[in-house]
Write a structure and sequence with these properties.
single chain; alpha/beta; TIM Barrel; 2 domains; eight-stranded parallel beta barrel; 8 strands; binds SN-glycerol-3-phosphate
Amino acid sequence: MEFFLDTANIEEIKQGIKHFPIRGITCNPTIIKKEGKIDFFNHFKEIRKIIGKQRSLHIQTVSQNCDGMISDAKAILKNIDQDIYIKIPVTAQGLEAIQILKREGLNITATAVYTKMQGYLALEAGIDYLALYLNRMENLNICSKSVISGFADKISKYQYKTKILAASFKNIAQINEAFDAGAQSITAPLSLLCDVFKVPSINQAVDVFNNDWASLYENKKGIEDL
Ligand code: G3P
């Protein structure tokens, strides 16, 4: 299982990679807007410095047509680095751009995927990651489990190398469902990942351990103090 942070916030990324086993960073123009009008290329160069080469960085194109998407992709690679995963929305223009850029050997994450056929076409176009919008699907009465398991089934049946990257979560239950349905990866904001530790029993258990230790060894905070 792979965990990504869905953010362009520098502090969130620093905190997130410190505490969680994070494979990479994903973002889109709406996420970038939360940071204000950033110095685009320098901001992502800084993110790369923080996350290193061992984690992947997924940045979305913004142009509406195929030629523009290709130019966006080239500008991202030239001005940030060559290892970026280019995120492209799966529209007709997007599919055209994906096929051209895959032929050039680029890393591609297909995004804004809501339906099976949209994703099947992206799979056949050779994408590396398939970003599915779980909560948004559920808001539209699309069964996200069925969409994810449909993709997991086709990836396995036809041996595509693509990984399912489930996104757009509003709670931890949706993340669990995504993994159960066959997603290999999920991306979420740090605040949502931190909710995992909000189960009161976790802290209660740790408090009991701490109290029992303190009652035995009074002023010895740790084992190294013995
Ligand atoms: O990665 C896609 C994700 O950011 C969409 O999330 O919350 O806007 O549905 P949301």
